[in-house]
Structure formats: C-alpha cells, structure tokens
Amino acid sequence: MDRNFKDRTKWLCVCGVLMAMNVVLSSSLFSVPVPGGHLYLNDIIICTASILLDPVGAFLVGGVGAFLGDLLFYPAPMFVSLVTHGLQAVAISLIAHRALKNRPALASCAGVAAGAVIMVVGYSLGRAFIYSTPEYALLKLPYQILQAVVGAVCGVLLCWKCGVKKAYDKIIEG
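Above: the chain sequence. Below: its structure as tokens.
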C-alpha cells in the first residue's frame, strides 16, 4: 500500500476521533452550569488537536466539530462556533508548528494564548449580535475567559506533560 495513503488515512482517523470528542464535549452533559449558560470543555480538545494537527485538520476538529456539536445540541450559535473555533484552531496550529521551531512547547503556549484571545473576542462579538444585547455578552465574558484558559492550559498539559504529542507522533510516523 502507498505510504502516502496510509498517512492520509491515519490523519483522517485522528481528525475524526478528535472531532467526535469535540462534538460530545459540546453537549450540556459534559459542561459546567454557570449563570447565563454553560462552561463547555470542548476547548480542551480544540487546543489539543490544534497543537497536534496541521491547520486544515485543526479547522476540521475545532470549527466543524464545534459547529456540529452546536447543530445537535444548541443550534443558535453554530455559525459563531464555526468561525470562532475554526479561527482559533488555525491560529494555534500555525503558531505551534511555524513559530519557535527549536522550542515547540513554548510555541504551543504562544499558540493557545493567541487562540484564547480569538475565542473570547469571537464569542463575545457573536453573542452580542445573536442575542442583540452587549450586556449578555459582558455577563458571559468571565466564563468565556475561564473556558479559554482551561482549554489552553489543559491542551498544553495533555500534549507536553501527559505524552499525547509523543503518542500522536508515534502513530503518525509508525
């Protein structure tokens, strides 16, 4: 079998599994109730996937996965999720893979920091337009920041301290 075909198949399988995890963590079953809504844990998967994958795979897992999760569980913000989490994932992936080549863990930290800003700003603007009230967006702002920080910290720890990056590299190379 062609090695390139095997690589694409592995990439597609990894993207599919991570996208499914994003969809599941987009549900209220795996969220923390907060005033005005829920704190979702799917940012952990988005950050982890974006550190591991190329920008296209990161967009599929982050943007399309969040879109599908919203479509299934709470459709109102699904397009905000597609754009915001998609941009977040692409930014993390680009920074993690192209900046500071000799310090990949530090590049991942810079990527998730930039991604957290994109997520908080994107959802704040999206909420202000979807619900037509900037006050609602401001009410949710502390929880958006908390969700972004939890996702960023957990994603970096999973990849670099818990061995997910090493396992992923072994799967892709093996």
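Residues 34 and 143 are 8 Å apart (CA to CA).
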